[in-house]
Design goal:
Blueprint (H helix, E strand, L loop, with lengths): L3 H8 L2 H33 L22 H6 L3 H15 L2 H12 L9 E2 L3 E2 H28 L3 H9 L4 H31 L11 H12 L3 H30 L5
Length: 258
Amino acid sequence: MFTAAGFEKTFAYIELFKQGLVCTISLSVLTVLFGFILALILAVMRLSDVCPFRYLALTRDGHLREQGFLATLSRFNPIRFIATVYVEVFRATPMLVQLFIIYYVVFDGVDLPSFKLFGFIRFDRFLPGVVALALNSGAYLSEIIRAGIQSIDGGQTEAARSLGLSQTQNMRFIILPQAIKNILPPIANEFVTIIKESSICYTIGVQEIMYAVTSIKGATYRIAEPLVIATLVYFCLTFPTSKIIAYFERRMSRGDKR
């Protein structure tokens, strides 16, 4: 299955793996960046308390409705509903389907610039890959952020209100700084996950690591050796990153121990 000649042929195309490595890291960094921004918006939307039909909860004589259609409608939060639907749809559907919808449907007919990043990454394929990964990652990261915000003691919100801080100020200056400390390790782990999931982008022609494997397979008619090298490259990316994350997670948790 594995032969010295096969590895020799594969190493002749080692430049493709170097390009794939640069592309994979670029995909992962941009995905986590844009995914985090989207996730923060989604998390705030899911924690919002915007009920435009709240007035329907009261009867004409001023009594509170406890059940019925109008009582249910009075509690309806359209912002939370939209965010919840988004999160559930993206978490319940395959990443490959989402990628194909973004590339073949959403970007169909969109005339993207055809220049190459770093001289070899095709922007017209790279951008849809980043968008698809970021949309998917945002759905998962939003749950991490939401859990981090909800982990902050509610008494701090009450104290902020007693000091005259608005809800926005409370979230910006009190809740989020503490929540970010709690969610940094899971977000860093999401970065490791994205490194591995980015391999799916080779299906739309993004020049990442698995694209290098298929290119070498077409040139040498060998698949085992390129897959071994791709495995080693992914391992060298994810294993040290995981250990670095674990180290900083231990450092950050020292202050929580009493």
